Amino acid sequence: MQRRLTKRGIERRDQLVEFAAHRFAENGYHPTSVTEIVSGLGVGKGVFYWYFTSKEELFVEILRGAQRGLRRTQEKAITGEGDPVARIELGIRASIRWLAENRDYFTLFQFASSEERFAPLLRLGEDVAVADAARHIRAGMDAGRIDEGDPAALGHAILGVTNQLVRILLFEKGEDPNRVADAAVRFCLGGLRGFSGVIAAGAHSPA
Amino acid sequence: MQRRLTKRGIERRDQLVEFAAHRFAENGYHPTSVTEIVSGLGVGKGVFYWYFTSKEELFVEILRGAQRGLRRTQEKAITGEGDPVARIELGIRASIRWLAENRDYFTLFQFASSEERFAPLLRLGEDVAVADAARHIRAGMDAGRIDEGDPAALGHAILGVTNQLVRILLFEKGEDPNRVADAAVRFCLGGLRGFSGVIAAGAHSPA
Amino acid sequence: MQRRLTKRGIERRDQLVEFAAHRFAENGYHPTSVTEIVSGLGVGKGVFYWYFTSKEELFVEILRGAQRGLRRTQEKAITGEGDPVARIELGIRASIRWLAENRDYFTLFQFASSEERFAPLLRLGEDVAVADAARHIRAGMDAGRIDEGDPAALGHAILGVTNQLVRILLFEKGEDPNRVADAAVRFCLGGLRGFSGVIAAGAHSPA
Amino acid sequence: MQRRLTKRGIERRDQLVEFAAHRFAENGYHPTSVTEIVSGLGVGKGVFYWYFTSKEELFVEILRGAQRGLRRTQEKAITGEGDPVARIELGIRASIRWLAENRDYFTLFQFASSEERFAPLLRLGEDVAVADAARHIRAGMDAGRIDEGDPAALGHAILGVTNQLVRILLFEKGEDPNRVADAAVRFCLGGLRGFSGVIAAGAHSPA
DNA sequence: TATGAATGAGTATTCATTCAT
DNA sequence: GATGAATGAATACTCATTCAT
């Protein structure tokens, strides 16, 4: 929706985004009704539709904002670092730090990934982050510091580790973000160096 | 619901479970209505509530069945293998094989993880699998084949890698399950051996 | 909506159609809400959507039924009459009689004609009736009893006269249907014989 | 609403009337929202309620304006013509010409006739036009050029023919206004001369 | 005069669940 | 075991109107 907003309008809009993000994270997207959002803010229902064309649009906006925030944090973190492996490490640490501070958004990412409507948008953001990582991985390979392999796949592996450890160690067990980051970094950098496996690749078990 | 079912009753019930699982995976849990399920099977609504007390109960049952299936596959795969690292590898490969053949369930796991109601049940299953892996990891550490660390955390890291690669490489890019397994195994075994990182652990960036 | 209805179901459905037709006629289609319809019948809201997919569908169904009823009446009226002009007259009289007894439907026709969504359906019915009349008119022309001209246009002229006189004389002034029919027939049969006009055709006033 | 308007105010008001009339005709009165009207003109909502107390008031105003316009056209057309039948003919021709050039208003008349709220106003205008015609008809009867009968009823019959032929021939089939007028005049003048019917008046079919 | 913001009752429709047969 | 019918609270969204500035 394109609307010229006054200062007051911008504030209202931000209020809505923030409050809704919190409720969505806490209660789920579907179970959170528009009525709940507006009455939680003590405003009329029309207010919601003055700022957003639909509940879906609001969610997409929240998602976009969160992705932007995470990405900025990552970029800021690796600025000035030249070593590709170090850049990867810094990226992982920055992501975990950001997620620790934005638990709501992490939950929203989780949900978005499970709905056909939102998953593509989420993937878009993931792909950008993974492509970034892949560039560093490529550089690491060229420098002989990382085993040859598909850089994008390795980037996704890092994403998988990070998300799972954040969910379990950080949010479920309440561990310290830095220790979670240590564990993630250690596993990922080890993973990047690879290991051929006990069972010869190709000698797969029968279907 | 506990009901003594005739043979025909059992078939009906299974039909419902199977059909619903497919629709839930395809369309989402919330967007799929009970009406849609029963009319898709050409039966009346009473049938549904004869076998299940609620839509939620049905979903839980589907989830439980899927977890049971995955677990059995994993157990079967490692039976007879004594080496702990090989057991881990076999477990990873078995999981990926099973997920490749049960895409619907993978999607359902995703969704379950995003709803407060179902997440605990999902975690339960994950914890069992992770505990299994952790035992092998512990054994690997004792044998000096795996770097010291928190076995459960490492187990979760493996889970994270596996799920992400399955989603992206297998389902999104359509790669061959065996090649996906190769990539996952390689990354995970490397990860288990760890790598101390370029930046000294503990020397974290400022919050 | 295709549904196997029990006897009770058919009754309910008929109830809904009848009641809604009355309310639509009395109050207008838009101003009459689904809530009003169901609560007027003392049933839950779901009942409405058990029988109809939408308010619009219900209206279309009402419209179709009314058109069918009018048409049947017209057909029955002219059965057995061979003279084309007499057939026209009988058709006019039958229409007016039917409209007098189905005032609600007349009002609904009026409304339908004013909404882009429903107008085409209405025109379809009108066209059928006009085509019927046009056949008789054609026959009348061939017999030299009606002036040459476009039969369809003449049929529409008859329709226009009939509807307007029904609205004004019958419904507004409350005149007797037979007298209204007399006036309509007289005007229409005169109109069919035509009159060249005082001002020469073609000598049109300036735009 | 009575407000002393500046020149600019009058222009704004006219803009609103014109634009709204077009949207109402195109899209229907109910489906066209005030928001749509003001945003279509690129102004705020306050503007609307500065000039009109309600959407309904605006519609009434549009209707009144249209009726005034049509009436003026009719009056101008018959000015200077003394023969009553010719006056009728000129009136019909003028009406059709005006409707051809004001299709939007024709549609609005249609709608107004179908809503209890607006119908009385519409009838008022119709009655004026019919009364006019009735005077000429009366004169024609006195001069023996038109069959005896109820002049008002005959006036309405003319109105019915005109409206229907305009809708079908002019708007639906896109015929030339002059040819439509020829057909209408011919039918109406014929109708005024009447025809006793094949079936004896009074010998009505059974109810 | 005009704007953007807000109101809140109202709308059509959905849907998990229950009921009578 | 199974059906069609019914429930009614809930949902997302609309819109004529009002208000503060």
Write the layout of secondary structure elements.
The structure is a homotetramer of 207-residue chains.
Chain A: H1 7-27, H2 34-41, H3 45-51, H4 55-78, H5 84-101, H6 103-112, H7 119-142, H8 151-172, H9 177-193
Helix pairs in contact in A: 1-2, 1-4, 1-6, 4-5, 4-7, 5-7, 5-8, 5-9, 7-8, 8-9
The first copy, chain A, binds a DNA duplex (21 and 21 nucleotides) through α1 and α3.
Task: Give a verbal description of the structure.
The structure is a homotetramer of 207-residue chains. In chain A, helix 1 crosses helix 4 and helix 4 packs across helix 5. Chain A folds into two domains: 1-53, Arc Repressor Mutant, subunit A; 64-193, Tetracycline Repressor, domain 2. Residues 200-207 of chain A have low confidence and may be disordered. Chain A has nine helices and no strands. The termini of chain A are far apart. The first copy, chain A, is elongated and about 60 Å long. Chain A has helices at 7-27, 34-41, 45-51, 55-78, 84-101, 103-112, 119-142, 151-172, 177-193. Chain A is 73% helix and 0% strand. By secondary structure, chain A is mainly α. Chain A binds a DNA duplex (21 and 21 nucleotides) through residues 3-6, 8-9, 12, 33-35, 43-50, 53-55.
Order of helices and strands of chain A: HHHHHHHHH
CATH arch. level architecture of the largest domain in chain A: Orthogonal Bundle
Count of individual beta strands of chain A: 0
Total discrete domains of chain A: 2
How does the overall form of chain A come out from the CA principal axes? elongated
Q: Would you identify the CATH H-level superfamily of the largest domain in chain A?
A: Tetracycline Repressor, domain 2
Distance between the termini of chain A: 52 Å
Q: Largest beta sheet of chain A, briefly?
A: none
Largest interface: which pair? A-B, 62 and 62 residues
Percent of residues in beta strands of chain A: under 5%
Q: What's the level 1 CATH class of the largest domain in chain A?
A: Mainly Alpha
What integer value in Å does the Rg of chain A equal?
Answer: 20 Å
Share of helix of chain A, binned = over 70%
The overall pLDDT of chain A, averaged over residues, is 91
The CATH topology of the largest domain in chain A turns out to be: Tetracycline Repressor, domain 2
| Total of helices of chain A | 9
| Coarse structural class of chain A | mainly alpha
Oligomer: homotetramer
Low-confidence stretches of chain A: 200-207
